[in-house]
Structures
1.
Amino acid sequence: MTTFTLTLHPHRFVRPSTGATYVSDGYLVFVPDIVYKIGFPGESAYNAILPGVTSLIAKGFVDEKNVAIQGHSWGGYQTAWIVTRTNLFKAAEAGRAGGNMISCLWRIRLL
């Protein structure tokens, strides 16, 4: 069985062109369905993502030494939160992540 390098996108709205580019370059793309517990967005993402990734590794689909996580905006926040709690990921990219949830909440309420 072929094992793949995994790229993970915690935000469920990944542009099809982005996913297709990774797949055509030989990556497995995992976009988890995260169910959020009110008041615990980072923990909710962690609890959805880690079991999914470890399952893909256990089933032999993913090379455990080549797992990356990438997120932007809300996905960036989740990425930043998750990488502070595990060493599973070889690489991580958190673009425009909201690190201050009070500030983010204020911005959301203004929209």
Note: The beta strands are 4-8, 27-30, 62-72, 91-95.
2.
Amino acid sequence: MIIRASVFPAWPRTAASFALLSLGLLLSGCADIGENVSTAFADPAKYELYDCKQLETERKTLANRAAELQGLMAKAETGVAGSVVSELAYRNDYVAVRGQTHFAEEAWRKNRCHESPPAPPAADSKLGPPGKPAGRAKPAKPAQLVKPATMSSKSGAGAY
């Protein structure tokens, strides 16, 4: 018995096509979510009790870590299957650091913190007063040699 395809109604094929198309659209939307869920991997209350000095050091640490992870991701992407390695090895850490940075910045604004001015350069002891050259420094004394202890004939005074 031969059954022709035209005997079956067209609606199951149409429904299957529509289901596959909608599934594709839904999954394509998930590709863009990665940057928006970065706060899901961070504790929103972590920085509530930090003062401005603590927040400043934490912000610098997080910025350095994010830059380090971006560099590692870029380096991993240059190799064979690099994008897969980059995603598996570094992406979760990078997203977590971005979430922590978001909450640290939020606490920074909430506390109305300001960047501290850079530290003044340390005074160099070799330099004299401004405009005058420094005097000649004395050379350091050479270290004196210490004679090794000799073994004594007394009992219990052996070198260990």
Note: The chain is about 45% helix and 0% strand.
3.
Amino acid sequence: MDTERSGGRFPISAGILFGLGLGGFFDGIVLHQVLQWHHMLSSWYPINSLENLKLNTLWDGIFHSTTYIFVVIGLFILWRTALGDISTGRANSLLERC
């Protein structure tokens, strides 16, 4: 999922993972927790009992964990790319390509 750009490789996969992860952070923090507009399964299991609330909260946590993993993997891909650039003498290449 990487592409050639400005004479070097920019990890497009890292950008996709960061986008998914940060979008999920926004949804999870703002819509789920602050505004409490919805939960992950609230359209299938409405919040009309304690059991349904526990189920929805569990799946909210799974969703938040997944978005966190996306961001960590995206960061790892960027780090590996930058590490490769440092070893080849192109330390500023990630910033130059943005």
Note: The first strand starts at residue 3 and ends at 5.
4.
Amino acid sequence: MTIGAPSDPAHVTGLFKDRLDEIGAQGEVAVQLAGRPFHISRAFVDDLAEQRLTDRIASLRKALLIFHSPTDDIVGIDNASRIFWPRSIPRASCRSPARTIS
């Protein structure tokens, strides 16, 4: 299952791209993501760069449920498509109208 996940894990580094040199030099830096501090290590950044998620998704032999909002401002809806399309058939897609839950 994915919920609002980027199709390329390296997308995450774009959220703190202005701190990448600092992370590389210091080994670990606290960054603000969604208003909260997170400690990001050089090893984490290196691991993200090595991941080939699309290849791994294509070879899955399990069901995959993908949820993604077309109004997500951080991870665009095109990421859901890039996760969905490499999958072997059978696959199905459905759209839900946007609504606010109170």
Note: The CA atoms of residues 54 and 102 lie 35 Å apart.
